[in-house]
Amino acid sequence: MSRIHVAIATTDIPKAVSFYQTLFGTEPTKLREDYAKFEVADPPVNFTLNRTTDADNVGHRGAQHLGIQVEATETVVAARSRLQAAGLETMTEEKVTCCYAVQDKVWAVDPDGHRWEIFVTHEDTEVHSIGKVGPPKEQSKPETAEEPCCAPECCT
Q1: Closest CA to 96 of 150, 51, 141, 147
Q2: Looking at domain 3-138, which of 3.20.20.70, 3.40.50.300, 3.10.180.10, 3.30.559.10 is its CATH number?
Q3: Going residue by residue through the chain (156 aa), what tens digit of pLDDT does each one get?
Q4: What is the pLDDT of residue 111?
Q5: Cα–Cα–Cα angle for 130, 131, 134, nearest 5°?
Q6: Does residue 43 have a cis peptide bond before it, meaning omega lies within 30 degrees of 0?
Q7: 40: left (phi over 0), alpha (psi -120 to 50) or beta
Q8: pLDDT at 61
Q9: Burial level of 6, CB count in 10 A (0-12/13-18/19+)?
Q10: What is the DSSP secondary-structure string of the chain?
């Protein structure tokens, strides 16, 4: 099953979790001090909350990025081929640790700057992320609470 992924920033995880539990009518499937994930069946969405401590930073409020969760790496590879064939710049990440999971993904940015990922999750992990997400050889800067979860500066 494929589903849309939406990641938003919040300054208060418990308050946001309470709101989205009511909105979606379900409990989070993953809950950490700085992160919460809801895997809603109807409508099918992977919805995540990422804590930020900088409420005035517009770049980290609202939607951080959008995505489509798929079931297999082959689907990610096919999406990359489709995007590149259309002349779009992409960025690929393999076995990246992001949002407490190991994932393969491809990124592209729409004409208005909205970052989209198509990704598959291989396994859960207790680690939020390993470095700031970017091309694999550039993953060296640790992520901080002020930086968006797993959303690279790519493809612009």
Answers
A1: 150
A2: 3.10.180.10
A3: 889 999 888 888 999 899 889 878 899 999 999 999 999 998 899 999 888 876 555 354 567 788 899 999 999 999 999 999 998 889 999 999 988 999 999 998 886 577 889 999 999 998 888 744 443 333 333 333 344 456 666 554
A4: 66
A5: 110
A6: yes
A7: beta
A8: 56
A9: middle
A10: --EEEEEEEES-HHHHHHHHHHHHTS--SEEETTEEEEEETTTTEEEEEEE-S-TT-GGGSEEEEEEEE-S-HHHHHHHHHHHHHTT---EEEEEEEETTEEEEEEEEE-TT--EEEEEEEEEE-S-SBSSS-SSGGGTTSPP-TTSPTT--S---
